[in-house]
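SEQUENCE AND FOLD
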Amino acid sequence: MLSTIVALSSVVSLVLLSENLNHWTYLLIATTWGSYTYLKKTTSLDAVSGLFLETLFLSAFLTLAIWAFNLTIIQPNESPYQNLLILLAGVVSVTPLLMFSFATNKIPLSATGFLQFILPLTLFSIGIIFYEQTIPKLSLALLMATASILAILLAYDLSTATSLNAKKIRDEKHL
């Protein structure tokens, strides 16, 4: 309960401190990614079958969108080498999705929430360390909110792991 209060207060403080931030976009991204992760975790499909169904669903949705909005598809008019690179980009894109699908069946749901912060924090760190970007007031508020959410997620993960380990030890003693 405490973790939920701290996480929600961090999000509310971020919303109140930021003036030009499009909150709904970020909340929608968090909601859809969280829902996606939850569905991945609770489905009985294996990683490959789940990814196949996702691709099938998205392909049908994209085809419908192209037809409904009368969109044009631009075909690459490049060399066969560049066309091959474009096709291989699909394999490169699918690999992390397949790995994520496989991993969500193996790790707790709370750990996937913690791992979702890796990319934004990595990009933030690269910007500060390598590109020497300054931290404006909004980014400092964002950093503080993110740090508090990460701390709560880490504490939750550690407490879950500790309680699971204690339960395992108790079960072994009763055998």
